[in-house]
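Format notes (please read before filing issues)

Several people have asked whether sequences and C-alpha cells are stored in separate files. They are not. Every record keeps both together, in the order shown below: the sequence lines, then the C-alpha cell lines. Line labels are part of the format and must not be stripped during preprocessing.
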Amino acid sequence: MSAAGGSAARWGREQRQAARRGPWRRVLAWLGLNRAARRADARAAHCEAGAVGEQRTADLLRPLEAQGWRVLHDRAIPGARHANADHVLISPGALVFLVDSKLWSGRFPVHGMDGRLWHGKVARDRSVRAVRYEAGLIGRALGVTVQPVIAVHNAPVDGGGFFVEGVPVVPADRLVEVLRGNDGPRQAGAAWLGKLAARRLPEYPGGP
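Then the structure lines:
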C-alpha cells in the first residue's frame, strides 16, 4: 500500500533538486539569486504541507481498518491525468468515501457562505470542484456512488462542520466520527468492493 502523501512529498523533492541541477545553479540558489529555485521551493513547500496533512489524516483513519474498513491512500484516478485521491475508504456497509485532506493556516476560520467554501477571505471553490470531480471519476471506475469529504487540519471549521455543494467540510478530528455515522448496515459485498477499488485505483506514481 502506498504511503499517504508519498507522491506529493516525492514531487516536492524532485522540484527542489531539478532547480539546483549543476554546480552553478546550486551556487546561485545558495546565494538566493536562482529565481527558478525560489519558485521550485515555493511549489515544494506547498506539496510538502499537503503531504503532512495527508499523513495526519492517515493516522486518524488507521483505527477504522481494524473495524472492517478498507482504506487506500494516494491512489491514481482513472481518467484524471494530474490528480490523485488522497484517501479512498470502503466501509463495512459497502459505501465508498473520498477524503481530501487540507492543511490550512489556523489563523483563519473555514466557513461556508452563499454556497461557497471560504478560508478566511480566500475562496476555496476549486477544492470543492476538484473533490467532486474526482469522486465522480472514482464512482465511474467502481460502478458506485462515491461521497466526497473535505477534512481540514489546523484551521477552525465553522459549526464543527457544514456542507458545500453536497460535500461535507469537517475538522479533521471529527472525520472518523462523521464516517462512522454515515455508514450503513454491514454488507457482504464490502470486501469484494474493497478489492475492486484496490485493483482499479492503483498507487499514484507521479506528482501534482
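For reference, the curators noted about this record: The chain has a mean pLDDT of 85. The domain at 6-200 is CATH 3.40.1350.70 (Trna Endonuclease; Chain: A, domain 1).
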